[in-house]
Amino acid sequence: MQKITAAITGVSTYVPDYVLSNSELETMVETTDEWIQSRTGILERRILKGEGKGVSYMAEKAVKELLEKTNTNPLDIEMVIFATVTPDHTFPATANKLSHNLGLKNAWGFDLEAACSGFLYSLTLGSKMIESGMHKKVLVIGADKMSSIIDYQDRATCIIFGDGGGAVLLEPNEEGNGLLDSKLYSDGVGVQYLHMKAGGSVKPPSAESVAAREHYVYQEGKTVFKYAVTNMADACAEIMERNSLKSDDIAYLLAHQANKRIIDATARRMGLGEEKVLMNIQRYGNTTNGTIPLLMSDFNDKFKKGDNLILAAFGGGFTWGASLLKWAY
Fold this sequence. Notes:
Layout: E1 5-14, E2 18-21, H1 22-26, H2 33-40, E3 44-47, H3 55-69, E4 79-83, H4 94-102, E5 108-112, H5 118-131, E6 138-145, H6 155-158, E7 163-173, E8 178-186, E9 194-196, H7 207-211, E10 217-219, H8 221-242, E11 252-255, H9 260-270, H10 281-284, H11 291-298, E12 308-315, E13 319-326
Parallel strand pairs: 4-5, 4-6, 11-12
Antiparallel strand pairs: 1-7, 2-3, 6-7, 8-13, 9-10, 12-13
Helix pairs in contact: 3-4, 8-9
């Protein structure tokens, strides 16, 4: 009997209409378009505008399109895993709210918070639910409204992040396609270098914490860059070695879109030419949990059934990892 794997059978995404360009950022903080592009590779990013619109707004748009595209009955969805660091509320889970709004009445689910690695973590968890035989249709969502936690007076972070995300449908596969392997890590050493200072149980919201602007992303960029370059590249190399893959065996690298220099360094470690490295960071910036599904959607036409794709991510915490995905359609 052929082993059951979890294959992605559809992907859909959503990004807001509003474009925040580098030239507009030049009027907000002390920076330049040339500096942003040379350091990050980013030209623009999308921002979700509108009263009362949280990350669920974008996720619902993506999931609704995905269900239509794959001709899936909402009642057939059995599980929803929502990777995000910007949930609509501290509780209840945005996955539950989304399931109600879209009529996913037979699904259970939860939010997963692992910073920029959350989508990769969630994809691995969802795949195991398929492989175990427990479920046949699992939704994995990666989306963030980073503009809700970014300080637009802080030039170190406001140039990097944008809003957006996407969703994939996981279903059983007996052809050997799907998520074949993952190598995932976490290390609390990274807490001090990339975090939000207030808002949690250690330092609950207060007038003082708001006045001190402690409810925004704080990042020590140079340290995070150093860890990201080493760890993401190492994880990709380990996945290739464990599965006896050479650079010629890899169709494309889909790396978390945090910084072009980090992605380039990872590709060099893997021995991949630039034609195999997919990037859209110039259009969206870092959408945290949304970057990999956005890559899948933007470059979907390039993929052929059976292609070996390496997915890689690195995020605050630190969290990081890589996965081997054999494209199923």
